[in-house]
Amino acid sequence: MSVAKIIELSAESPTSFEDAIVQGITKASKTVHNIKSAWVKEQHVVIENAKVALFRVDLKVTFVLD
Asked: Which of 13, 25, 37, 63 could potentially form a cystine with 20 if both were Cys, beta carbons 3.0 to 4.6 Å apart?
């Protein structure tokens, strides 16, 4: 029997939402093992000088406990 846990995290990138997702999962995988899936809960952009400066995502990350 396996048990999974879900955590929420936020990640950002100056490039794209996709890059923010990849960076968030990459960073989380350094300390959280057995990541199985992630769900994008929300997406936001930060505007500076009438331009998109940052892409932010809020993720729900699922991993299996040891």
From this structure: 13
CB 56 within 8 A of CB 19: no
Q: What distance in Å separates the CA atoms of residue 65 and residue 61, rounded to the nearest whole number? A: 13
Q: What is the pLDDT of residues 44-59, one digit of tens each?
A: 999 999 999 999 999 9
Both tokens of 53, joined, read 């400066």
Q: Which residues contact 45 (CB under 8 A, 6 or more apart)?
A: 52, 53, 54, 55, 56
Identify the three-state secondary structure at position 39. strand
Cα 11 to chain center, whole Å?
A: 5
